[in-house]
Amino acid sequence: MAGGFRFTPVLEAFGQPHPSPFPIAPLFGAWLEGVAAVEVKVSVRHGHLSDNHQKQVREKAEKLLHYFNRITMIEVTVDLQDPTRKVVEFLAKSEHKHDFVAREGHVELMGALELAYDKVVHQIHRHKEKIQDHRRDRQDRPAGEAPGAPAVDAGP
Hints:
Blueprint (H helix, E strand, L loop, with lengths): L7 H5 L16 H4 L6 E7 L5 H12 L1 H4 L3 E12 L2 E10 L3 E9 L2 H23 L25
Parallel strand pairs: 1-2
Antiparallel strand pairs: 2-3, 3-4
C-alpha cells in the first residue's frame, strides 16, 4: 500500500498477517462473512454443566438461526434442582419485540433440551407463517373465489 497506513503491527499481534486491509477482519471474521452475531447465554441453576453439555446446548441454540435469522439473543436456562427431572428453558428474542419462550422437563438433560428446542422451532414456524404474505397475487375479489376464476357479474 503505497502512501497508505499499514496495519502490520496490529495484524501480527494476532499471530499471522491477514490478507484484508482492514485491521478488524481477524476479530470479526464471521461477521464479515455474513454470519449474524447472536449472543447466546447459557445459565445453570442448582448445579453445574460439563463443558461437553455446555457445548451441545450452545450448538443447539445456535441452530435456531437456521429457522429465523432475525433472532438477536438466545438465553438457555438449565435447572438441575430436581435430580429426577431436568428443566430446560429457551428464550429467543427477535427484532420487533417478539420473543419465543419454551420450557420443558425430562429425566435426561438432552431429552429436555430436544423437547424445548422443538417447541421453540414450532413457535418460530407459526410466527413466520403469520408474517408471510400468502396473498401476493390477490386483487379485490370476494372471499372463496378461486384466484384464476373470472369475476362473475350478477347482471341487471
